[in-house]
Design brief:
about 400 residues; alpha/beta; Rossmann fold; 8-stranded mixed β-sheet; 5-stranded parallel β-sheet; 14 helices
């Protein structure tokens, strides 16, 4: 079953070259179960035909304030009243300016002004248009007005230039819409999530790492964002794209991860330690490539700092959640680890079931005992973990005005 079943979305298109992506966006929303109604500006019709969107959604596309298919002659009212969310993608610089100033000179702009539902926009324009002070003032005003924004990103543009202003890809917009509909159980909480593997150098070209893909940690970061939290994702090297609203801090070694966590922990409400962190680093590492010799290679190791233990023992420590990945005796080792680390919640899984898999099966261990999450996609597991955290977490910190 899709993530947007029974959700009613009005998809608005304005006149930018990125309008061609709206076909994929409409398909993605429908695939997730959404009911999609499309409204296009006159300029949008120059880039993509209304018939295309009608064929994809199975609904007539509206383009005019004077469309006589609406019996009472008020499409700007009737088209938006049954919608859960209005999404304008692409949203051009011109349309953004209209929203800021309350202009109502076409059907899409008018229904956005007359809406009852929430509004999300996906900006799309040339990099210089995006960077223009007038556009940036307008963007700040829309955020102040409570309009949610997805993107833009940076990349190649139709004009041949490269920079900010590129509309987010349809899959990313769908992901943001799904996130928008999730319950905001941790609204305003500041969360650090660690994810991925660490890498310990042996020499200039070799190192020791592990098989963690980072998928579970990235899923937890996304689930935390969905819950309304402010998320900092401290990640080792992965091939994954981080959630667009998270603050990403890339690291390589265990000590780098430790230092970044400890430098941010004072402003943190919840710390979720998902990363697969190396327990040891190479003591006799070489700055240059080690050469092969008849004597072989001898490595000496020294212990890395324990990140979770350091956070849990810190002054005014945040609510700490640990992860335990074991290959056997999961419940015994996980229970011992939670007590040893002195943390309120630990999520445990078998490595052979979780590594390089898109699914997982977690056991959540707290003071009340063990709570099993049935095997499912890692994002579902992450959402289950966040829901359980909300049952245990008691906000106790004063808001931080600046970070």
């Amino acid at each position: 079953m899709g993530e947007l079943v029974d959700k009613r979305i009005l998809l608005g298109l304005t006149g930018g070259i990125a309008a061609y992506k709206a076909a994929d966006l409409a398909r993605g929303l429908i695939k997730e179960g959404a009911d999609v109604q499309v409204v296009m500006t006159e300029a949008a019709c120059k880039f993509v035909a209304p018939l295309t969107l009608q064929a994809l959604t199975g609904k007539p596309v509206f383009t005019s304030m004077w469309d006589d298919r609406i019996g009472n002659g008020m499409p700007h009212i009737e088209l938006s009243r049954d919608r859960d969310l209005i999404v304008v993608a692409p949203a051009t610089a011109d349309f953004i300016a209209k929203l800021v100033h309350g202009a109502a000179d076409d059907l899409l702009a008018t229904l956005c002004i007359a809406r009852k539902s929430r509004l999300m926009i996906a900006p799309a324009m040339n990099r210089q248009m995006w960077e223009n002070p007038a556009t940036q003032r307008n963007i700040r005003q829309l955020r102040d007005d409570g309009i949610f924004m997805e993107g833009p990103g940076s990349g190649d543009q139709a004009c041949g230039e490269n920079g900010m202003g590129r509309m987010s890809e349809p899959a990313q917009i769908v992901e943001s819409i799904i996130s928008w509909f999730q319950p905001k159980l941790l609204a305003g909480a500041r969360i650090i999530v660690t994810a991925g593997p660490t890498y310990e150098p042996i020499d200039a070209v070799r190192g020791i790492t592990n098989l963690s893909s980072g998928r579970m940690g990235y899923a937890v970061a996304r689930a935390a964002l969905e819950s309304g939290a402010d998320v900092t994702l401290i990640s080792g090297r992965t091939s994954l794209v981080p959630p667009s609203s998270a603050t990403l801090i890339p690291v390589v070694t265990a000590r780098e991860m430790h230092d970044q966590v400890m430098s941010h922990v004072a402003d943190t409400d919840i710390f979720i330690s998902v990363a697969a962190v190396a327990d040891y680093r190479v003591k006799n590492r070489d700055e240059h490539k080690k050469k092969k010799t008849d004597a072989g290679l001898k490595l000496e190791f020294t212990e890395n700092p324990d990140i979770l233990e350091s956070v849990a023992a810190s002054e005014n420590a945040p609510f700490c959640v640990g992860f335990a990945a074991e290959s056997r005796d999961l419940e015994t080792y996980a229970h011992e680890k939670r007590l040893r680390k002195n943390i309120p919640l630990l999520a445990a899984n078998l490595v052979q079931d979780a590594l390089n898999s898109h699914e997982n099966e977690l056991i959540l261990i707290d003071d009340e005992g063990m709570h099993r999450l049935a095997r499912s996609p890692k994002l579902d597991q992450a959402r289950g973990l966040i829901r359980h955290i909300t049952k245990l977490y008691k906000p106790s910190r004063k808001p931080v005005t600046a970070r």
